[in-house]
Amino acid sequence: MMKKDFIVRRSITIVEGKPHVETYSEEPLVRCEDCHYGIRNSKEDIFCIKAIYNDKYKRPDWFCADGVMKDD
User: Fold this and answer.
1) 45 contacts: CB under 8 Å, gap ≥ 6
2) Looking at the whole model, is its pTM more than 0.70?
3) Cystine design at 67: which of 23, 35, 46, 60 (Cβ 3.0–4.6 Å)?
């Protein structure tokens, strides 16, 4: 079974003295190695500076909130 990670955004408020947690966004987490922006895209001339550091320091677990899955 493949593990999937998500970026989850939540709001926490206190209601009658108790915390109330509400999830308002949940998006798949895209790691740099799987990201469209992780490579230079000559068609769109887009690249990611984080991917450059990822290549230099070999951090396969890097990701950001702007990741977009590659179209293979």
Assistant:
1) none
2) no
3) 35
